[in-house]
Fold this sequence. Notes:
Blueprint: H1 9-15, H2 17-27, E1 37-41, H3 47-54, E2 60-65, H4 68-78, E3 86-89, E4 101-107, H5 116-126, E5 127-138, H6 144-154, H7 175-184, E6 189-196, H8 204-212, H9 214-219, H10 222-235, E7 245-252
Parallel strand pairs: 1-2, 1-4, 2-3, 4-5
Antiparallel strand pairs: 5-7, 6-7
Helix pairs in contact: 1-4, 2-3, 5-7, 6-10
Amino acid sequence: MPEVRAWDGASYDRISGPMEALGREVLERLALAGDETVLDAGCGSGRVTEALLERLPRGRVIAVDVSESMIAAARERLGEEIAPADLRQADLLELELEEPVDAIFSTATFHWIADHDSLFRRLHAALAPGGRLVAQCGGEGNIDILRGHATAVLAREPYAAHFHDWQAPWNYAGPDQTERRLRAAGFTAAACALQPAPQEPEHPREFLSTIVLGPHVQRLPEHLRERYIDDVLAELERPVVVDYVRLNIDATA
């Protein structure tokens, strides 16, 4: 089984400007009257949750993330300034809500979950009839170039000895299989498409270490982690570009 990765919510909040920008674009696809209850499925440190709250002056946001560190960062960011989100640490594969929600919004999360069949069944169960799922995650082809360089470095010693039985934690699905999974989960309509979305992070070293290559870094002993990032950066052109390919998901319960 792929390993469960740990997150540094404070670091993520500091450097996740590219993820926020992508998330705000996804939010524009979600039509809201302002009085709905919306589930933010994988809220991270709350940067996009903040924008979602602004769209719901008479509504409510239930913001869920599996990481305790992310929820702590979201609490720090959101405070009581806008309207308090209902922040919950929970695994989306075990999600249970007291009442169904009007919509589910998610960015940069689903590709960290291996079992999309179970995920979509849970999300469908959380939606009121006719409710919308609007989401974006890493899709087929995501960071292929960057991962190729990172994998080449991992094949060398002293890193290779730590990865002989490693399984990558990502699930970068394609649009056709995702549409089939959504309909099998009970959604009445589903449309999915891939979108190239290359990003040039402001802090490439921390961005790679915290987000893109976090699973690799965490697998290594402490004394090799900085050296590994050094070696990967040496393989990359400048400026560093993360070759994101995003899977856009729009579905109706």
